[in-house]
Every structure is written in structure tokens, then in C-alpha cells.
Amino acid sequence: MTLPDQADENGQSAHFRALEQLYASAPINNLFRSELEILEPGRSRITFSAQEAHFHAAGAAHGTIYFKMLDDAAFYAANSLVSDRFLLTTGFNLHFTKPIRGGTVVAEGRWVSGKRRVFIAEANLVDEEGDEIGRGTGTFMRSHIALSGLSGYRQPD
């Protein structure tokens, strides 16, 4: 699998750190506390703690937490390959395999294909026991929104 062209290693690292800051600055993450790491081009990891506040009436995490974490992990895996534009999710398919009843959950995102305008990435969720609890695949499109114009996207000096 060939990854889209990237800047030099220093520029790439700065882009990854700026994406992590962008993620942390999103107001939605005040509701769903989580941390993003861009591991390498086309790979991301989000770690979060499933809380009772995320549960539906039957005592497990509501599907919104699955979607948010899977979408975010896949999105940032794809956007790690694009240093000038913000991507937009145009479609996402997810599968629930086990209920989340609490604890630390990790979402791992991986770029699958696409190099110019449309990107495909996948993600999976794993619970504290190491069991897969969900997976999804998303399609992401390059937008007209410049990353450099977003207040949360700040590259280190």
C-alpha cells in the first residue's frame, strides 16, 4: 500500500501535533473526553474512558460514543495524509460487536485508500480486556476549509 506524498519528517511531525491540538480544541470533546495520537502517516489512536453519562437506559454506552470514536479515529488517520485541507466525513458504516459497559476504550484508525480528493479509512474499538467492541469504515472528502485557517490547528514553531 503506497501512502500519499508527505512533507519532510519535521513537517510531518508538526502536522501531526497540530492535528492533535485541533482535535483537543473541538468543543464536542468537552462532552466526550478523549485523547488523540497520530502514530504515523495513515494511523491514529484515540483513548477514552466510557462513563455512566454515556450510557443508555439499559446500562451500556449509547451508539453515539461508538460512532464518534470510530469516525474520529478513521478521520484523523486520513487527514494525517493531507496537510493543507480539512477533510469531511461523507459516509460512515459501523458495526457493533459488544456493549461498552465502562472503562478505557481505544479506537485505532487506519487509512485504506485514496490519495487526492476522496479517502477511505477504517477504525476499530477495543475494550480493556482486548476484545473488539466495534468497527467502521468511512469515506472522507477534501473540503475547501484550510487547516491553517482553523484556530485549533497550530503547528509548533
Automatic annotation (TrEMBL):
Alphabetized InterPro entries for the sequence: HotDog_dom_sf, PAAI_dom, Thioestr_dom
Residue ranges of coiled coil: none
Domain Thioesterase: start-end pairs: 59-132
Keywords tagged on the record: Hydrolase
Phosphoprotein listed as a keyword: no
Designated name of the protein: PaaI family thioesterase
